[in-house]
Structures are given as C-alpha cells and as structure tokens.
Design goal:
Length: 212
C-alpha cells in the first residue's frame, strides 16, 4: 500500500448541503460540511461507492477498490463570503445560495491505495468518478464533476517525501495522464437524484449510503 494525494479540478460547481438560516433571512443558505478543525469534509463512503462503479466500468480491481481509504479532510478552501456563494436558481428569479468549490477550483484529497492498483489504473478509476459521478455534498451526479490533475505520493508532515520516491526505480511523482486506456467503449448512465432535509440538503450519493 501507499499513500497518495490526488488533485482534481472541478468542471462544474461542488455545492455545500448544510442548511443555515439566520433570523431575518428570507431564504436559507447552504454551507460545506466541515471537520472539527474547520476543513471541508467529504465522507469516505462517497468515494468508495463511486470507485466501485468505476471498477465495474473498467472491468478490473472490483475487490481491490474496497481497500482504498480516503481521508475525510479536503485540501481546499471555498470562498466563505456569502456574497460570492454559488446561486442555484429555482426558477428565473428565485435562487438559493451555496458555499461552493466553483468551476476551475482545484482541491487535493489523500488516500491509501493498495499496491495491486498501479498509478495509471488509479488515475483511470478516479477519471470515471469525475466524469460520471462527481463529488458534491449537495446534488450528487448533478454537481461536482471533475478532471484529475495529478496523482502523487503524499509528502510526510515534515515535508520529507516518502522514501519510495528516493529509490532508483521510482516514478515521477507528478503523474501524467495515462497515454492509453485499455478499456474503452463501456459507459454508464446514472439518474440524477436529490432530496431536501430540514438541516441538510443533498441527495442519495448511492443506494448503499448517504453519499456518493
């Protein structure tokens, strides 16, 4: 196993789903879920369910993806100014505001990946997640689509990189997009789903859990 950092760039906005309405506010706004230390939180289960889908599309690693474990803390800071929140229109005039990672924003997520999944295949797995599932607390499979920017060995807390990077046969830490994709022609169509809750608005990320 190895610990990797994946950096992704959103191609559609990724929206918060935690409802907040102060006294005097006509409409609620929706914030990103956060860890106790204030970082944006993406549940590990969201990734796991989507990676199972990707493995089925690629026809490989169906068992190994179950051993991929994601850190819930996200390396990225959305704009917290309510005036700059994403506006989700209900009709031509009415809209709700969401704290969001916007189109073009890049975030990083850390994960543990088993050795039987090489870097190129992991890239391909995440590519399918980004194109067909996305990652978004609100409106999964409607918001939060992304492309993979890089896959790299995670640096240790002291900024000393993993010793494996120093070995003579180590690969370039900044991965390029795989030159060939050995499994083309398969696709999947997923119905959009979303639901509203008093305190949390989002959707069934997957039938198996509360999130993607």
């Amino acid at each position: 196993m190895r610990e990797l950092t994946v950096r992704i760039k959103f191609t559609t906005a990724c929206l918060g789903n935690i409802k907040k309405q102060s006294a005097g506010d006509k409409w609620p706004s929706y914030l990103m879920p956060r860890t106790p230390d204030g970082r944006v939180r993406f549940e590990a289960q969201w990734w796991k369910h989507s990676l199972k889908f990707s493995a089925q599309v690629l026809c490989r690693h169906q068992r190994a993806v179950l051993d991929i474990h994601f850190d819930v803390s996200v390396d990225g800071k959305p704009d917290i100014n309510p005036e700059n929140f994403y506006r989700r229109y209900l009709d031509g005039k009415k809209f709700l505001k969401h704290e969001a990672f916007k189109e073009g924003d890049i975030i990083g997520v850390n994960c543990i990946v088993p050795s039987e999944i090489d870097d190129d295949d992991f890239w391909r797995l995440m590519d399918r997640v980004g194109r067909f599932k996305g990652i978004s607390p609100f409106g999964p499979r409607e918001y939060g689509f992304f492309v993979v920017e890089s896959v790299s060995l995670r640096k240790l807390g002291s900024d000393v990189e993993d010793k494996r990077r120093k070995t003579s046969d180590s690969k370039d830490i900044q991965r390029r997009k795989p030159s060939k994709d050995s499994n083309q022609g398969q696709s999947s169509t997923d119905a959009l789903s979303s639901s509203t809750d008093v305190h949390q608005e989002g959707g069934d990320h997957d039938a198996e859990g509360a999130s993607s």
